[in-house]
Amino acid sequence: MRIPVLNYHAMYMSGNDVRNNDHKALAADLEAIEAEGFQIRPLPELVDMWLARPLDLEGRKLVALTCDDGSDFDFHDIEHPDWGVQRSMLNVLRDFQAAHPGAQPGLFITSFVVVSPEDRAELDRLCMHGCGWWNDDWWGEAVASGLMGIASHSWDHNHEALSNPRFPRIARGMFTSIDTKEAADYQIEQASRYLRKRAPNPATRLFAYPYGPHSNYLVNEYFPRHGNELGIDACFSDDGMPWTNGASRWEIPRFGHGRDWHEPDELVRILKDAV
User: Fold this and answer.
1) How many angstroms separate the CA atoms of 232 and 217, rounded?
2) Would you tell me the crossing angle of helices 22-35 and 264-274 to the nearest 10 degrees?
3) How much is the pTM?
4) pLDDT in tens, 106-121
């Protein structure tokens, strides 16, 4: 079993080609995945199968798609002030379906979202264009589409642009500093609770670490002890290697566009290596 989990960031764009725009990259990568004979399957489905019947995943050419942060660019087509109208990640999948009827019946992408409404609004103001592009009113419709799941990327990403007087000594801009139960509950437990209420769907049982690197406490203590009560079955990092049977369920690796590959030919090498 060697499954590439591919990750994108819909807010990453500094142009309109596959190397500098994750919307364009996803569209091109879907064609490469199809040409290489890989099956795209929903990440929650693969996690469930891996935990219950891992041998069922052996010897199959499988891939899963994810995107991080959960801005409106995941769901809505939006006109960017610099780069024009951007096709949403969800609509990129719909375009592929329209171009390839019957192909990839498991087509699906999991959006790992920053959960806190207040902090999303503040990050939209501080880090984007302040246009109100970081909402959650589309989560339910995205789930209903059958093409997208909504999963947790923590309460506020422990983002460096935010301040939190409750945890003044916790370094921000990283997730390695989340190393106590109080801090972990703030970032993870309340996010899971809100997400299950706001957008119930199988992907709420998944978590992706902001920034990728994370504390040993989360992997070795917090999730093994509290995963069941949190309703979380598996966590995802950014280690840039295929997911294998030897992986820890609390740090399953992902490949990141813009770091591990930049264009379809480089993705094809990742896919061939998985075979």
Assistant:
1) 16
2) 50
3) 0.97
4) 999 999 999 999 999 9
